[in-house]
# Entry
Amino acid sequence: MTLPTGRNRPLAWGFLAAIVVAVTIAGCGGGSDEPTLTVLGASSLTEALGKYGDGFAGATVRSSFAGSDQLAAQIKQGAKADVFASADTGYPAELHREGVVEKPVVFARNRLVVVTPEGSGVESLGDLAQPGTKIVIGDPSVPVGAYTREVLGRLPAGEREAILANVRSEEPEVTAVLAKVANGAADAGFVYATDAKTVAGQVRKVPVQSQLQPDVAYAAAVLSDSGDPQQARRYLQGLLHGPGAADLREAGFLPPR
Amino acid sequence: MRLRSGFGLLALAAAALALAFLVLPVVAIFADVSPGRLLDALGEESAREALWLSLRTTLLAVAIVLLVGTPAAYLLGRRRFRGRSLVLTAIELPLVMPPAVAGIALLAALGPNGVLGGWVEDTGIEFVFQTAGVVVALIFVSAPFYLRQAIAAFAALDPRLLEAARTLGAGPFRVFATVALPGARQGLASGLALAWGRALGEFGATLLFAGSLEGVTQTAPLAIFSAFSRPGGFDAALALSAVLIVVSALILIGVKLLGADQAVEDPAVR
# Structure
């Protein structure tokens, strides 16, 4: 690449300056006196907690979503946050045992479902065992991956082995499983019922019968070294009884028992 | 530059800072994992599969980049034509592209719903969820590193040497193989080291385009990512990282030795 010549130089500098200014302006904004809450949530909570956080009165909520196992690992490594909302009860319980978070509370429940692209020919769990079916599931350490293996564990051994043989990828978070099905790369994927709702037109749902369903319970906890535990506990309360609970219901989450 | 001058001292401090910053994380990995744990982690099936897969796929990707990229770089480096700048910028684009974007782009081009998706399916080749997809992703992100160095190396060749060979009766291929290649050796070697290192560390494009499955598509970086969030997996992640660092360093040193030429030191650097 040639450097700008004398004639091009002002144009080149102007171009670069414009980029820097644009990025700075985009990055700024929101510097208020309100306290900030940092929420680390499971990927499947992206829409519901995103809405809840945007409308949260009294604090600016910054949410970050990833696989619950990733988040737990990051918290253990010292990530600074106020609330941890996991897609299971195991990770919050483990963190509580290590004194890293306060006592967790179950705030929602969910169900597993199989999603499949239009025209894939997958109509039932039995079809997943057909050779050549491309299945995507979660990595074993991410909650949706563990729940999927629970479901498969309740199937007869032959069917289970055939389905596992068809697994082509173990994704680090449930949204990645959904994406691979939605863009047609996979024939089927195990996701949460709430995830299927977010891409309603692009995929078909194959239900997982109740007797195969695992107990999918989402638990959240305030971090022990949160900068604002009071606000954090208010956030949790809202998840259980207030606007947060409404947003969860709207996204399709089941109430905690 | 006089080191005792004010600016000289500043530059020295800057160099020391840069060195410390780049070296510290690497040293920390080896400080954090005991040799015993390192060997244990290497004994694990998933770690061995990941390293073997990384080795196979990067070797294949780099071989293809060398085979196709060297003649291409020769042409692009030595011929002037209209639109040359544009072509060079297009080739360098993956360099500044975020790896995740590269993954999306590959899906948009070669995925099942992609521009060439139907054609790819007809030939029976599968990329997504296959090792072939990993190799494609590696080629896409590493080729620009090699091409850039190779083009510069060929462009810097003394045209008189090539002319001399031609006037002595050598055909174009002979000129390329016996005069241009040896002459550009240093630049080609450094390009090879960069491309291989980049391929070894590739993560985002591989994950998005090919997926992650042990033994098929879960390369070492993907395995590290998976190990990190497993209960008790941080040690395994550290151990895998340590191995990758050693391998990368060996590649870098080996390739530099390959291209080293004591007689040709840059006279401009004192």
Q: What stands out?
A: The radius of gyration of chain A is 22 Å. The CA atoms of residues 82 and 189 of chain A lie 32 Å apart. Residues 9-27 of chain A form the longest helix (19 residues).
